[in-house]
Amino acid sequence: MTETDNAHRFEFSSIDGERLPLDAWRGRPVLVVNTASFCGYTPQYLDLEALWQHFRDRGLVVLGVPSNDFGEQEPGSAVEIRQFCTTNYSVDFPLTEKCRVIGAEAHPFYRWIAETLGEAGTPRWNFHKYLVGPDGELVAAWPSQISPTDSQITGEIEHLLPSG
User: Fold this and answer.
1) Quick one: which of 42, 31, 51 has its CA closest to 87?
2) CATH code of the domain covering residue 85
3) Which of 1, 6, 8, 15 qualifies as a FRET site for 136, CA 20 to 30 Å off?
4) What are the tens digits of pLDDT across the range 130-150?
5) DSSP state of 163
6) 130 in a structural domain
């Protein structure tokens, strides 16, 4: 696989409108999660923040991707989303601008996911998780109902991080 075939070729915009290229985290694992403020899984923000706090000094990046694709559960503006996340869940990990994550209009990262994993690998609901390895390769994916702190996820993350 060539350099242009991995996740490092994609760029998001941060919730504050800044460039957020995935290759800035080359050498670090990145957990990419499509999020929503008004979903039954929204309390997973607590676990995502706990994961970020626990592993970030060893290199893990947690990247939240707000999306209104499922049940219109992320209707707010960037300011409203950021305020909701920080006020209710003390979210400190990076958030992107609101993006489409399914269909032809999906962000290019999510279209790549669909090409890589097939249609069955695309998000089915909010809080679907994708782990990108330090080399930009897709390592694993988990559906919404798997908690970010589940041993399946933390085990994969531990495997990708230097011991510490």
Assistant:
1) 42
2) 3.40.30.10
3) 15
4) 999 999 999 999 999 999 999
5) P
6) yes
Residue 164 falls inside a structural domain: no
- Using a 10 angstrom Cβ sphere, with 0-12 exposed, 13-18 middle and 19 or more buried, the burial of residue 163 is exposed
User: Among this protein's residues, is 39 annotated catalytic?
Assistant: yes
Task: State the catalytic residue, choosing from 9, 11, 38, 39.
Answer: 39
Q: Is 55 among the domain residues? A: yes
- What's the domain range around 93? 3-159
pLDDT tens for each residue of 74-102: 999 999 999 999 999 999 999 999 999 99
Burial (CB count within 10 angstroms: exposed 0-12, middle 13-18, buried 19+), residue 64: buried
Residue 112 in any domain: the answer is yes
Instruction: Give the count of domains, the chain.
Output: 1
Task: Write down the pLDDT at residue 114.
Answer: 95
